[in-house]
Specification:
316 residues, seven-stranded mixed sheet, six-stranded parallel sheet, alpha/beta, Dihydrodipicolinate Reductase, domain 2, Rossmann fold, 2 domains
């Protein structure tokens, strides 16, 4: 069956999802929602999408829409996810699920009430590099002792991944740390039992901390150290070093090297080497198979419980 999709958010990550969905059989984007009409129409024309709107409710009212992919600002994620579920649409919302724990719990409640597929885009679970490590862990060939993670950007102004002005403010804790907090527990297969955070000065205009340090410990004893910065003038992105009992591996998005920077071939890990595409494939497979997806909203909620703990620490 063909799954008809509405994409909400035609910015940098919305484009990534459009490119990814174009590679998936029997998936058709029939509606696109944007903040302003003209640039959204340009995106729709480029991808051959017939319906364009600035109002998500208009897309949700379309009977032909089966599912929605949300690549909208963080502050909208929870409310829009619930709106999609209440409208009878499956939903995949980009990370983070929410920017406060209460909203995250409301999304989980909406999914349980409707029984629809609701998934959060915790892309690191799907990157071939991290999948490769996970398979070694599952096969008892590698035990993670420590993850050392750097999440670095140079964003002293409110711009997105394309360098364009944002209508909202990004957040190191609820957005970028969510990737690592979730991935750490997922990769070691053990819940986080200790979590500590420190942050640097609050930016006078953006109102957020530009630098942050987080330490985690899992019940298994494995530890994670995460450094985050919007002040780093250099290569941007998130870089994961896995230190274990039988090796060291460094993951940079979909690429993987060992501790001596020797490349590791991950091309045969999955049907694609694009983490966003693999994430989207899981969403549509779960819809077709009537099952809970990897990184369902229920599955990732413990990550947001940890973020809530950290936020309360930082507020003291």
């Amino acid at each position: 069956m063909t799954i008809n999709v509405a994409l909400a958010g035609a910015g940098a990550f919305g484009i990534k999802h459009l490119d990814a969905m174009s590679k998936i059989d029997d998936v058709r984007v029939v509606s696109v929602v944007g903040r302003t009409l003209e640039p959204t129409q340009e995106v729709a024309a480029k991808y051959g999408i017939g319906h364009v709107t600035t109002d998500l409710a208009e897309s949700l009212a379309l009977d032909e829409v089966d599912a929605v992919v949300l690549a909208t600002p963080t502050q909208m994620h929870a409310a829009q996810s619930i709106a999609c579920l209440d409208a009878g649409k499956h939903v995949e919302v980009e990370i983070p699920l929410c920017d406060n724990l209460a909203d995250g719990r409301r999304v989980v409640e909406a999914q349980q009430r409707t029984g629809l597929v609701a998934m959060c885009g915790h892309t690191r679970r799907f990157n071939p590099s991290h999948q490769w490590v996970n398979r070694r862990v599952q096969a008892n060939e590698f035990a993670i002792q420590q993850m050392d993670v750097q999440t670095y950007f140079f964003r002293r102004t409110n711009t997105n991944a394309l360098g364009n002005a944002r209508s909202w403010t990004d957040h190191l804790l609820w957005h970028h740390a969510a990737h690592t907090v979730d991935l750490f527990a997922y990769q070691v297969g053990s819940p986080i039992v200790d979590a500590h955070a420190m942050q640097g000065p609050i930016h006078p205009e953006l109102g957020i901390a530009m630098d942050m340090s987080i330490q985690l410990r899992a019940a298994s004893g494995a530890i994670c150290t995460l450094s985050l910065s919007f002040n780093n003038d250099g290569p941007f992105g998130t870089f994961f070093r896995y230190i274990g009992d039988t090796g060291t591996y460094i993951a940079r998005y979909d690429d993987l090297v060992d501790g001596r920077e020797e490349p590791i071939d991950v091309s045969d890990v999955d049907v694609s080497t694009n983490g966003i595409e693999l994430q989207d494939r899981e969403f549509f497979s779960a819809i077709r198979e009537g099952r809970e997806p990897n990184s369902s909203v229920n599955d990732v909620l413990p990550c947001y419980e940890i973020l809530d703990r950290l936020e309360r620490q930082l507020a003291k």
